[in-house]
Design brief:
The structure is a homodimer.
Chain A (H helix, E strand, L loop, with lengths): L14 E4 L10 H9 L6 E5 L8 H12 L3 E4 L11 H8 L3 E4 L4 H8 L3 H11 L3 E5 L1 H4 L4 E6 L10 E5 L7 E5 L7 H9 L5 E5 L3 E5 L4 E6 L3 E5 L5 E2 L12 E2 L2 E5 L4 E3 L4 E3 L4
Parallel strand pairs in A: 1-5, 2-3, 2-4, 4-5, 8-9
Antiparallel strand pairs in A: 1-10, 6-7, 9-12, 10-11, 11-16, 12-15, 13-14, 16-17
């Protein structure tokens, strides 16, 4: 029963939530860094387009990764739970050095992949060093606690964010995406106000948080990473307010980091790019 | 980053969700079994009445545990987040062989205790052998994924259950309480439909699920334990339906266990009392 255990060092692969809307070109710094981590030219990338309902989403990323110059780029289509037990598909995933989940709807990822052999394989692979990236819905699905849906707005309200179990690569963060573009501070604060043990990561479009095996995050991309740290929270009124009513939060720590900025999830210290 | 790790044997203490409404008398089989596990006459029990807004909730349990015949029964009042850093209170918890959380509102537990030194201590203590029981709201708060609130009804609907992070002693189960009495099958199914990786436990009143260090559950009490196992789930339409609309689920496995019945969370096998 793992969640009650304490931290220990690991050879875990990188966990890379991307805020959506990343530049889909071969010069994208985010996609290039992901390829580089996964072995450069020798990387074996698997794309999971499950979140998307569009047929060509996987193809588009396959083209870009191929243009970047790697030989082995596979699309593994997982359209139902039976697909997630298919030995051929599992073998392709088993062979990957990097796994990339596209955008779409995170509830498609959690309802189709959750609890299947693919989910187990991805968790184990990441624990053993495989890098896992997800953009937009693919980013939301990454942590143990996933924002399933919610509404926009700057201030937290009871019920504004609906949480659901995610893939569970880490429970240290709750991730929201298209963050600045869709005004999601209120919904991320609402998600944290239920139980302020995790750190909130609000990832802007064309921006990624590279969470290393040492639990240090580095920001890459043209937008910002909003870090919401509830360590010093003195009060959350979530238990006292009616549904849809504003929530009082006292003592939230907030950081906005840009490219090159770092945040240590263990010490909860932020450093700007120059630091 | 613990949640991605795989299972391993442990000396973990028992995790004991109680469905609420247990007989508050010294002959209660549930409270006696909890005392016996915690060391019998030599047990050191700490009561956490945080979920309740009534002043005498802790006192009532203190009387019963004292009548059962143990010497050391402390109430540790945690009324705000500052209390959860109090060295005197932490020392009492540190000394416990069994911790008991009363009923009330689980959002009081998660907003006051979540992310504090008390939460860390309880997780570590349980991992090291201390038994942790909770009744009603105290039961809901136990797992990694907690049902914060929801509505009654037998069939699952989108948005029927609102999840939030709980204490995180285990992520293998999602717990609902007052189960039969308040008709909560629909809300527990809704909670599982988001991501069918966990097992749902619906605990009736005056009934407890004793989850052992070996991940085998034994049922005790006058009601039933409803086990919802989504292992064979072929389809969840949670991603496709509008808010408040019914959800299609195909392939759920359901068990109703009574006193003496067992369920193995590792193999997902149920056995009746006589088995």
């Amino acid at each position: 029963m793992c969640p009650a255990k304490v931290d220990h060092p690991s050879n875990r692969g990188y966990i890379i939530p991307i805020g959506g809307g990343e530049k889909k070109v071969k010069t994208s710094s985010i996609l290039n860094r992901f390829v580089e981590l996964s072995g450069g030219r020798k990387a074996r990338i698997v794309i999971i387009p499950t979140a998307s309902r569009l047929e060509d989403t996987g193809d588009r990323y396959q083209e870009i990764f191929t243009e970047i110059g790697i030989d082995t780029v596979d699309i593994v289509s997982l359209d139902n739970r039976e697909d997630c037990e298919d030995t051929g598909k599992l073998a392709k995933l088993e062979n990957a050095t990097g796994i990339f989940m596209t955008g779409g709807d995170q509830l498609r990822l959690s309802t189709i992949i959750g609890g299947t052999s693919v989910a187990k394989l991805m968790r184990k692979a990441n624990a053993e060093g495989v890098h896992i990236a997800g953009t937009s819905a693919g980013a939301a699905f990454i942590p143990e606690h996933m924002i399933a849906f919610g509404r926009g707005g700057a201030t937290p309200k009871s019920g504004l964010a609906t949480l659901a179990p995610g893939l569970g690569l880490t429970n240290k963060v709750i991730i929201d995406q298209h963050f600045r573009e869709r005004g999601r501070l209120g919904r991320l604060l609402s998600a944290l106000a239920y139980n302020p043990f995790a750190v909130g990561l609000g990832v802007d479009e064309d921006t990624a948080a590279f969470i290393g095996p040492d639990n240090v995050i580095e920001v890459l991309g043209s937008g910002g990473l909003t870090v919401i740290d509830p360590t010093d929270l003195q009060h959350s009124s979530m238990a006292d307010v009616g549904r849809g009513k504003p929530v009082c939060l006292i003592g939230i720590r907030l950081h906005i980091l840009l490219e090159g900025g770092r945040y240590d999830l263990s010490t909860r210290e932020a450093k700007p790019a120059s630091g």
